[in-house]
Amino acid sequence: MKAIGIILAGGQNEKLKELGAVRATSAMPVGSCYRAIDFPLSNMANSGINKVAVITQYNSRSLHDHLNSSKWWGFGRKHGGLFVLAPFLSKDGNFGFRGTADSIYQNISFLRRSNEPYVVITGGDGIYKLDYNEVLSFHVEKDADITVVCKNVNMDVTNFGVVDLDENGRLIEFEEKPLEAFSDTISLGIYIIRRELLISLLEEIIPEGRYDFVRDIITRYRKRLNMYGYMFGERYWGGINSAESYFNINMDFLRPDIRRMFFAEQPHIETKNKDEPPAKYNANSQVRNCLIGCGSIIDGMAENSVLFRRVMVGENAVVRNSIIMEGCVIGQGAMVVDAILDKDVRISEGQIFMGEYGNPKIMMKGSTL
Amino acid sequence: MRKKEMIAMLLAGGQGSRLGVLTKNKAKPAVSFGGKYRIIDFPMSNCINSGVDTVGVLTQYQPLQLNRHIGIGIPWDLDRRYGGVTVLPPHMKEGEQGFWYTGTADAIYQNINFIDTYSPTYVLVISGDHIYKMDYGKMLDFHKKTKANATIAVLEVPWEEANRFGIMNTDATGKIHSFEEKPKEPKSNLASMGIYIFNWDMMRDALLEVHEDVADMDFGKHLIPEYLSQGKNLYAYRFDGYWKDVGTVDSFWAANMDLIKTVPEFDLYEDFAKIYTSSEHQPPQFSGANSDIRASLISEGCEVYGTVHNSVLGTDVFVAEGAVIRDSIIMEGSRVGENALLDCVIVDEGCVIGNDVQMGIGDNTANIEKPQIYTTGITVVGEGSVVPDGVVVGKNCVIHGITLAEHYENGRLQSGGTLDLTGGGE
Fold it and tell me: What is the per-residue pLDDT for A190?
């Protein structure tokens, strides 16, 4: 593909509550063995993009750990490959990126030192499967300056970037988190732009003290530049923007259509290999409608839940309607219902941890009940 | 070239003919084991976990699957700029014809140049046939401490089984004074595990010398006796962990079943000394709303809607609703149809078992064509086979190929029957 990729993975989300306090949203564990960034990163690799920058900032340790070897996504190469770009202290005394556009601008040599004519920009926390070549073909066909991938949704859109397209697909309005929705079309935060145009736009706005890609490029230039909306259609897209949506996205992975799309159909979504043995079901286990990560040992009961890797469910323990992240231990006879257990949580023998249906209770990483 | 203290030579060329149809298209070290692994993963992982980062893998019989599995050694962190894994097939030499590896020691002899590249002080010789975890570094420490010329790892076996092994007779310090291959009246119960550490310079000379007289040079038959006859220092290194030879259909089945015990003797779940394997794609495993899984290992990518008891499932296995699998091994990518019943069956990779099929039914007649291989009641389905809907298959049966309903007389394959549509011998 004639494009390089940029994944904006620096963001955090207050609405993820305790879950978001320990990691960037892009590093949120999803679907039993993945992290959110595996989806855009695999999409990049599967679209034939050879050179990808992941821009990190907030709480990046988990993310850097996850990306410490680029070989799982096929990016371990001599030319191109994966560039993890973290904030650095510059001579101006800047430490930290002042916004998404600024984060690209501070790494502008990544853009300058590439030859590919296009750049695919995406967030690191969207759960979707997309061949960016489709979007690029559309971009070229429309002779667009910037293409924004959009989707019609029937939900409250005031948390999203809302767009209005004309009958030709030209973007005529774009507002981030509008007070009142003016359409039911949202931006998925996936953009294609010519590399040289991106460089010149950044050089124009940064000196003016404008640092945000959406506000200061998309919204501000929507009339001057030719922007088009590429409709994502009915395909699955999950955006992690609250604890509730995080819970629901994980539960979506129990649906056969979602499992088929993400697990079975090629191209595959890849993730870091952790060398865990197969899941072990002991003699009295009862598991129904669950995803079970490898390395887990199940002695008790699990229902309608997503269990990540290396989860232990003790004898007579019950797990129901819950997300249990990697390394959790649920003691004998304990009960976990309508809950999200962050990594390495221990529920001691006989304890009960229960949320409400539709309002999962969260247990912090590494804590013990 | 830089020097390596010890490099490993892994003998992976054997067919393992007693595994029957399981090794028809692949070498024994490439056979799936424990769900997601292949047998060779155990010695390969032992190497890297012991700090041995240079491994020559000697291949010969049906190497395709093995080569693909090993690749450039990424799963074991053996993709190195210097050292790492090198696959060593038999090859042509100038002015001569090519030679197959005619014996275990001959395979090392033919790769003297490879070993010389690293100027090792020690050469570790291991095989790709066994399931165990071992720190070869500790064995090397023992080898250095005893100032041995060669060290052989040994395991105490029950006296009544000692006649099936190569037995080392030692003194109290572990020095070996004699060696007997499968002795009728064993004088010791220390069995050779086929794991050797040699001082390379002396081994090199011995290989050249013995090669003068023996064309099919073997460690047990020639090299070790040669060392003993010359009065060299041979020591037995005692190992007391789990070690299983999975050379027969029955022992292969039993070693798999060892893993599903609540507290298994061989633990894959400990954090140190992990076993690594190559898995191209590893989505999580799904258990359906009516699934009933007990005492089983289920690998990544499996979808289970039926019942699985006391069984080991490899990656990407599909078990349809109503199917019942008991005491069986189902390998990578196989599908078991609705309401099928599998009792004591080994299904190799990429098979399709039709709906309502019943396997492992009836009396325990040994396999008629190969009674010495299939006799303990286990029915085996070879790689890529198809078993059509509704047929009934007995015990000790072998099925290989795309079989159709018309191949089953009255819809049955009696116990001991063989249905091989792939042609050729095993």
Answer: 95
CA nearest neighbour of A147 among A205, A218, A86: A218
Q: Does residue A94 surpass a pLDDT of 70?
A: no
Please give the structure tokens belonging to residue B32: 């799936």
Q: Specify the residue for token string 């001599």.
A: A78
Element (H, E) at A72: none
Question: Is pLDDT at B44 greater than 70 in this prediction?
Answer: yes
- Is the backbone peptide bond immediately before B388 cis, with ω within 30 degrees of 0? no
Strand A361-363 and strand B324-326: the pairing is: unpaired
Q: What is the CA radius of gyration of chain A?
A: 21
Which candidate from B276, B282, B286 shows the least CB-CB separation from A259? Answer: B286
Tens digits of residue pLDDT in B291-346: 999 999 999 999 999 999 999 999 999 999 999 999 999 999 999 999 999 999 99
Token reading at A288: 């129904």
d(C-alpha A122, C-alpha A67), whole Å: 17
Whether B390 contacts B370, CB under 8 Å = no
Contact: A277, B297; criterion CB under 8 Å = yes
Chain B residues near residue A281 by CB distance under 8 angstroms? 293-298, 308
Question: Residue A275 is encoded by which pair of tokens?
Answer: 């060398």
- Contact across the interface for B285 and A292, Cβ inside 8 Å: yes
User: What secondary structure, in 3-state letters, does A156-203 show?
Assistant: CCCCCEEEEECCCCEEEEEEECCCCCCCCEEEEEEEEEEHHHHHHHHH
> Are A277 and B293 in contact (CB < 8 Å)?
no
**Option in B274, B275, B297 nearest A280 (CB):** B297
Q: How far apart are CA A200 and CA B334, in angstroms?
A: 55
Contact B293 A287 (CB under 8 A): yes
With H, G, I as helix, E, B as strand and everything else as coil, classify residue A265: coil
| C-alpha torsion sign, points A268, A271, A277, A282 | negative
| Chain B nearest C-alpha distance from A119 (Å) | 28
Q: Do B192 and B168 form a contact (C-beta atoms < 8 A)?
A: yes
pTM here is 0.92
Q: Are B372 and B394 in contact (CB under 8 A)?
A: no
DSSP label at B356?
Answer: T
Please check whether residue A321 is in contact with residue A338, taking contact to mean a CB–CB distance below 8 angstroms.
yes
Which residues in chain B touch residue A253, judged by CB atoms under 8 angstroms apart?
Answer: 284
Instruction: Report the relative pairing of strands A339-341 and A323-324 from DSSP bridges.
Output: parallel
Of B289, B292, B299, the CB nearest to A278: B299
| B378-400 confidence digits (pLDDT tens) | 999 999 999 999 999 999 999 99
- Supply the DSSP symbol for B219: I
Q: Residue B3 and residue A30: Cα distance in Å, rounded?
A: 45
Q: Which of B37, B45, B287, B290 to mutate to test the interface with A (most CBs of A within 10 A)?
A: B287
- Report the distance separating Cα B163 and Cα B158, nearest Å: 10
Q: Which residues of A touch B262 (CB under 8 A)?
A: 282-283, 299
The values of phi and psi at residue B28, to 5°, are: -55, -40
Residue with tokens 């650095």: A88
Instruction: List, as ranges, residues 7-66 from A with C-beta within 8 Å of B.
Output: 31-33
Task: Sort out which chain B residues have CB atoms less than 8 A from A292's CB and list them.
Answer: 284-287, 298
Alpha-carbon span B301 to A293, nearest angstrom: 10
- With contacts defined as CB-CB under 8 Å, which chain A residues touch B282? 33, 271, 273, 294
By the 8 A CB rule, do A2 and B255 touch? no
- Give the type of residue at B224: I
Q: Is A80 left (phi over 0), alpha (psi -120 to 50) or beta?
A: left
CB contact (8 A) between residue A275 and residue B276: yes
Q: Which two tokens stand for residue A38?
A: 């595996």
Q: Which residue from A31, A283, A289 is facing B284, i.e. has the nearest CB?
A: A31
